Amino acid sequence: MTDVNAALRRTRIGDRETAQGETERAVRRGAWPVAETPAGRTTGWWGMLLFICTEAAMFACFIASYYYLRFSTDGSWPPVSDKLPHRIVPGIGTGVLVLSCLPMFAAVRTSRKSRAVTFPLLVLVTLAGTTFVVLQAVDYMQEYPSSTPSKDAYGSLLFTLTGLHAFHVGIGVLMMLLVLGGQLARGFKKPQAGATRVMAMYWYFLAVLAVAIYITVYLTPYIM
């Protein structure tokens, strides 16, 4: 403890430069306690950000392909053999997914303070994601057999874009179930703030993507 006492004494008399040297020696010898706290973003946060960026690039390519084929095709879009897409059911699904961002946001805010409140909020988000996937399946039954994935370019892009997005929402629902299971296993005793924040990043991405896909696939055929 000699270095610790010397550093404190030097600080009191105003010799800060020498005190800093004494402190560094005390830390190296293990006599000065150092709190180990994580600095900056977590590994999970950066991993999710990288995943979102790669998936956003993939969906951007599909959306760009949709518009390219739309404007390079002579005649009507969708082709005359395809019906115009149904807007109501996918519109409801998109609205449900976007509105689920509100309880997701609230869950992030309460994840460190009241985990008993966070849990039902995450359950609500999970139910919203499940509802979206079910409504997407209902929409496929409406579109079929007028449009199919193998019929033409329009049908291929319609099912690819919406199917990939529904698949990602399904992954989000499974990830949410894992977070909920972790909370149940811990009995609400340990915080799940980090996992909740990472899940929120992914969920917000899915909501923004849902709006972009709905505008592209379900609205532009009526106005362009």
Helices and strands in order, then pairings?
Elements: H1 2-13, H2 16-29, H3 43-72, H4 88-99, H5 101-110, H6 115-143, H7 153-186, H8 193-223
Structure description:
This protein has 224 residues and is mainly alpha-helical. The protein folds into 2 domains: 37 residues, no CATH class; 181 residues, Cytochrome c oxidase, subunit III, four-helix bundle (Four Helix Bundle (Hemerythrin (Met), subunit A), Up-down Bundle), CATH 1.20.120. The chain contains 8 helices and no strands.
Throw out a few tags for this protein.
single chain; 224 residues; mainly alpha; Four Helix Bundle (Hemerythrin (Met), subunit A); 2 domains; 77% helix; elongated
